[in-house]
Design a protein that fits this description.
Helix content: under 10%
Strand content: over 45%
Number of helices: 0
Mean pLDDT: 97
Largest sheet: 7 strands, mixed
Number of strands: 11
Distance between the termini: 41 Å
């Protein structure tokens, strides 16, 4: 049974930092690419960052430099480090694993106050 579980969301003030975690199970984590996406009210879900099985990374251009994606295959975990957070970063952040047809986590809320 495939599971994708995010954690680490919360409320922070503008300029603060958070680290999100995504743990995958039920498949060979190291073989799959993993992505972080986010969705704010009234907006479509958008790509934040992707890390490939070879650890190559891709970022949404507007977020590169503030957000860092990484993975620890020994822990079946992908991380999203977010720095210099702004109120515009407020959203539900989702983890996506590109295994089979793809699997989404349930999401974790990030709220940034000014």
């Amino acid at each position: 049974q495939v599971q994708v579980v995010e954690s680490g969301g919360g409320s922070v003030q503008s300029g603060g930092s958070l680290r999100l975690s995504c743990v995958g199970s039920g498949f060979t984590f190291s073989d799959e690419w993993v992505g972080w996406y986010r969705q704010s009210p009234g907006n479509e879900r958008e790509l934040v960052a992707i890390v490939g099985s070879n650890h190559a990374t891709t970022y949404a251009p507007a977020l590169e430099g503030r957000f860092t994606i990484s993975r620890d295959n020994a822990k079946n975990t992908c991380y999203l480090e977010m720095a210099s957070l702004e109120p515009e970063d407020t959203a539900v952040y989702y983890c996506y694993v590109g295994y089979e047809h793809g699997y989404w986590g349930q999401g974790t809320q990030v709220t940034v106050s000014s």
